[in-house]
Design goal:
It contains three helices and no strands. By secondary structure, it is mostly helical. Pfam families: DUF6533.
Length: 128
C-alpha cells in the first residue's frame, strides 16, 4: 500500500505540471495570434494590389474568408479559453465549441483548396 503523503506529493506534482502546460498553451496561443496579425499587417499592401484591386473570383473570395474569419475565431477562442470570460453562459460555450470546430474544418479545406490551386497554377503555368 502506498504512503498517503507520497501519493499526495505525486498528485500535487502532476497538478503543477498540468497547470504549467495550460499556462504555456495560453502563451503560445497569444504569441501565435500576434504573429498572425503582424503577418497580416506586413502583407496588407500586397493584398490590396493582388486581391482587392482585381476582379472578384471565387479564389479571391476563399482567400478573404480564410484571411479575415480565422483571426476573429482566434480572438473569441483566446478570450474564451484564455481565462478572461468567467461569465459566459454554458449554452454559449457549447455553441461556440461546435461553431469553432466547424470553422476549423472549413478553414482546413479552404487552405488546402488554395494550395492545390497554387500547385496547379505552377505546374500548368495557368493564370488564376
Amino acid at each position: 500500500m502506498a504512503d498517503p503523503a507520497t501519493t499526495a506529493h505525486a498528485s500535487l506534482h502532476e497538478l503543477e505540471i498540468a497547470l504549467h502546460h495550460i499556462f504555456a498553451s495560453k502563451c503560445l496561443a497569444i504569441a501565435g495570434f500576434c504573429i498572425l496579425i503582424y503577418d497580416h499587417l506586413l502583407t496588407f499592401p500586397q493584398e490590396v494590389e493582388l486581391v482587392w484591386k482585381q476582379q472578384r473570383s471565387w479564389v479571391s473570395i476563399l482567400f478573404v474568408l480564410n484571411r479575415y474569419i480565422t483571426p476573429l475565431v482566434l480572438m473569441v477562442d483566446i478570450y474564451d479559453k484564455g481565462g478572461l470570460a468567467n461569465f459566459l453562459p454554458q449554452s454559449f460555450c457549447v455553441n461556440w465549441y461546435f461553431a469553432e470546430s466547424a470553422w476549423n474544418l472549413v478553414a482546413f479545406g479552404l487552405i488546402h483548396a488554395l494550395v492545390a490551386l497554387r500547385v496547379r497554377c505552377n505546374c500548368f503555368q495557368a493564370s488564376m
